[in-house]
Amino acid sequence: MEIQNKNKEYTSKGNIVYSCQYHVIFCPKYRRRVLVDDIKVDLEEIILNNQTEYDYKIIEMEIMPDHVHLLIDINPKTGVFSTICKIKGVSSRELRLKYPCLKKRIPTLWTRSEFISSVGSVSLSVVKQYIEDQKER
Length: 137
Description:
Elements (H helix, E strand, L loop, with lengths): L1 E4 L2 E6 L2 E3 L2 E6 L10 H13 L1 H4 L1 E9 L2 E8 L5 H19 L2 H5 L9 E4 L5 H10 L4
Antiparallel strand pairs: 1-2, 2-3, 4-6, 4-7, 5-6
Helix pairs in contact: 1-3
């Protein structure tokens, strides 16, 4: 169940009510520009299709050829690091099965690193606008 309070949405699950948004960036190994065309479309679909299973909600997403931006709301019981690892793991497995060219170009799809910033010091609208502006770069 989602609860709205002015501009903020809260999620209620069992005995917890939360609003935990993060700006997350992660990149393919060697920052290779492989997230294009059908791979980009499939990656977006994979990320969106796993929201319920891994207990997160995508607020905004932009997939660039060499990196991914997510504005994501995550259940604090699950944790941000664990959730991002699951997203990267399932997407790597599915994309590398469907696109053998990914196996030839890089040893693993994703780097072991990611940028994670809680959204609190700036408004959600500022982060959303930043992610949308990535299209124009």
